[in-house]
Amino acid sequence: MQITVKTIRSLTRGLEILEAIAAHQPIGLTALCTATGEDKSALQRTLATLHEAGWIQPAPGSSPQWELGAKAIVVSGRARQSSSLQGRARQLLGPLRDATGETVHLALLTNTNLVVADVAEGMQVVRTAIPIGAFHPFEMSAAGRAIFAHSSPAQRLERTHAPEKMLTAAEYEQIRQRGWASSAGAVLEGSNSIGAAILDAAGTPMGAIVISGPASRLTPDRCEELGVALTETIHALSHHH
What we know:
By secondary structure, this protein is α+β, with helices and mostly antiparallel strands. The protein has two domains: 9-69, Winged helix-like DNA-binding domain superfamily/Winged helix DNA-binding domain (Arc Repressor Mutant, subunit A); 83-239, GAF domain (Beta-Lactamase), CATH 3.30.450.40. It has helices spanning 9-24, 29-36, 40-52, 70-82, 84-100, 142-149, 153-159, 169-178, 220-239; strands spanning 56-58, 66-68, 103-109, 114-120, 181-184, 191-199, 205-214.
């Protein structure tokens, strides 16, 4: 739907700051200035407003840092419950985690970002911990590569933040044919991941499911094995959309 009315720039900036806090929490004022490019005094006013409204709160500890507040968590929970795709995906994340033993998460595609929306943490003592609200780089992450494998060249250029890090067209085609993509250390250092795109009835990507774990366990051979379980889960999810 195309909206033609004028937007409120201050509200847009406030939401961008809220997204930055969600992605980097807990985060202090100086780091938030760097992440958003916002003037410190203007940022302080926005933080005070978000805090007063219950969207953010001071993080525990001696140094002043911010994290999401109760209102953001409640709204996020309601959104997850109301999303039919997310609801169906949640039913599959747990069984896939149980079958593989590794952390499994759902990343959803927005207009410009790929955001972690749900996580089933692995059962191993040493495992990857993926925070809800984290962003996946399209160019380097398994989820992003899987999404780009089902996107046109124009769509890739529109979404990329680092075109020099994109794969070749032949590599994206190889991922599309295989059904999943892999990456090393793109989201968490020392971890490997494989991801497969969730497609709607027209073949348009809506998000991705990712299996991740320490590189010592997710070797190339094991990734091939996990890829079979991942593509089966993706087919069950995509075909019932």
